[in-house]
Amino acid sequence: MCRALKILCAASTPDRLAELKRATVTVHWELVGGATSVDELAAQIEEWNPDVVVLDKGFDSGGEARARTVKDTLRIVMVEALDAESIRQAVLGLPQPGGPVRS
Question: By CB distance 3.0 to 4.6 Å, which of 1, 16, 23, 68 could disulfide with 82?
Fold first, then answer.
């Protein structure tokens, strides 16, 4: 049985969270929850059990460490620019353009 990746976004303000979610949403995964504080992030990781957390660069500096204490196998993607293609590549683990050449 297949299931979609669950992605949880976190940003420091509700407006920035909304922007991050708009940049992150795609048919490739399920977008769940959304946090604007470290405590909210930890609670939503427990509730939603996401595969990946997309953290806005401006999010609380303790967010990554707290997320790992809740779920140590969590994949965390830090983003600065809200570029949908870069976020998709980071979540899926694709190499950035200009990466290694394969023959």
Answer: 23
